[in-house]
Amino acid sequence: MRMTPTESAYAPAGSLHGKVALITGSTSGIGLGIAHAFAQAGTRLVLNGLGPADEMERLRAGIEEQYGAQVLYSAADMSSPSSIEQMIGMTRETFGRIDILVNNAGIQHVAPLESFPVEKWDLILAINLSSAFHTTRLALKSMRENGWGRIINVASAHGLVASPFKSAYVAAKHAIVGLTKVTALEAAEDGVTCNAICPGYVYTPLVEAQIEGQAAAHNLPRERVVREVLLAQQPNKRFATVEQMGAIAVFLAGEGAASITGAALPADGGWTAH
Predict the structure, then answer these.
(1) For the chain, does the N or the C end have fewer beta carbons within 10 angstroms?
(2) What burial class does residue 7 get, using C-beta atoms within 10 Å of its C-beta: 0-12 exposed, 13-18 middle, 19+ buried?
(3) Tens digit of pLDDT for each residue in 94-136?
(4) Is the dihedral of CA 171, 51, 74, 65 positive or negative?
(5) Do 81 and 213 have their domain in common?
(6) Could you give the residue numbers annotated as active site?
(7) For residue 233, what are the domain limits?
């Protein structure tokens, strides 16, 4: 039956109302921006991240109060498969389902290959890559049972191109793009999509700290650090915002993106257009 414009299912907030979204690494930065966007769209949330218990409770309660959304918090260690399994179990026990999974947790370390600390390599791959494998394999069962699901992997422009001194990060982000494609193919007939967002530089408190550090180290004004160091490869010469990342994630979860799966979507100001 043909829909009239007023019957269209393409309003993201309406289509996501009441669904359950689990977002890893969502107590700061990009993940927190995505959490706010999904709460505003009407989803119930599971936040995840590390921090003092009282601070995490304030964050959880604040989002719950601001949007009227039911919000849980998990301190699951993303480097631990058993901890991840407990988080997925808590989500299903509380809400009975997982509709949307956003794999955002990640860390970084910069060093030349020959002196890259082995323990840092192992930890980055565990958190940036293996955690997404574990959450995905455990969440897919719920999504398939319900005939609907959205898996969104926050990769990076470094999932598409490389930079020196970031071997573990680049390797993990390239692998996340591959995992995205495999997941999309395996779940294609089950009403489940899987896509990757590949941001360039997104303005967060951590990025601001990098600007200040580089300015001091190279004795450069802030504006030159932004244009000539951090955004040297980004043609638009401006940071993306966490709100923009949230809007992309909500779009990918909505009905308007139901036929988008297996994609690695650059949100990098033209970086990967070179």
Answers:
(1) N
(2) exposed
(3) 999 999 999 999 999 999 999 999 999 999 999 999 999 999 9
(4) negative
(5) no
(6) 169
(7) 203-239
